[in-house]
Design brief:
By secondary structure, the protein is α+β, with helices and mostly antiparallel strands. 27% of the residues lie in helices and 43% in strands. Strand 4 and strand 5 (47-52) form a beta hairpin.
């Protein structure tokens, strides 16, 4: 990391990943070009889960090369008078696989819904019964994570 003064520890980076509303998942296309797409991640222990369709470019890329990078940002604040932004960020690298075991899929979906739709958990079982067969779940087993932040002095 170039700006060592902004570097934060692993626990900080994991908290950013846990707190972010969305993250950008980067994969490599079959022709070697980069591909980035926003996802809604949830951190369970030190595994990242996200939901997706059952087919598409992201899954094609993961099948070709399961090495991925996840970029997360949260707690941003624009400071226009100083031409800067306060932020907290994390960059995680790992291997992504498609979850096939139903019990793990249900656990991941429950965690995703608890994070993004806590007020609607009473409808979780009904929604899962309707959509589980057409919902993909991927998991990223973290191999590396770094954190960074910038705060303006008071």
């Amino acid at each position: 990391m170039r700006r060592k003064d902004r570097e934060r520890d692993r626990e900080f980076a994991l908290r950013v990943l846990k707190d972010c509303e969305y993250a950008t998942l980067s994969t490599v296309n079959l022709d070697g070009s980069p591909y980035g797409i926003p996802i809604s991640p949830v951190l369970v222990d030190e595994v990242v889960y996200f939901h997706c369709a059952l087919e598409g470019q992201k899954l094609d890329n993961i099948a070709h090369s399961n090495q991925v990078c996840l970029s997360c940002v949260c707690h941003t604040k624009l400071i226009p008078e100083h031409f800067t932004t306060e932020f907290e960020s994390a960059v995680a690298k790992g291997r992504c696989t498609i979850v096939t075991e139903e019990e793990e899929k249900l656990m991941a979906l429950r965690c995703i819904c608890e994070k993004y739709a806590p007020s609607n958990m009473h409808a979780f079982e009904h929604a899962v019964a309707r959509s589980l067969m057409r919902t993909g779940i991927c998991k990223i087993e973290l191999e590396e994570i770094t954190g960074k932040s910038k705060k303006m002095p008071e």
